[in-house]
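Example 3.2
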Amino acid sequence: MGDNANAIEIQIWAVMLANLLLTLIKSKVKRKWAFSNMVSFVRRQLMNYIDVYSFLENPEQSWIKLITERNLKYQNTLFSPP
């Protein structure tokens, strides 16, 4: 995070690109979100491997699906259930 003219210009372009991407995501999602709420959800889930569109359409169902897929993929016990 520099404070010279070139660094500030790069930061402005980065913010404009991020804003454009989030605006495009918001336009494709059918569920109505406030822009600030959507940005905070995307920011929190940025490091998780989830489908952004399905998550923003139905967050609860998306999490349930993700958890069940992970439970089927990984064995959490030493012995498999009978």
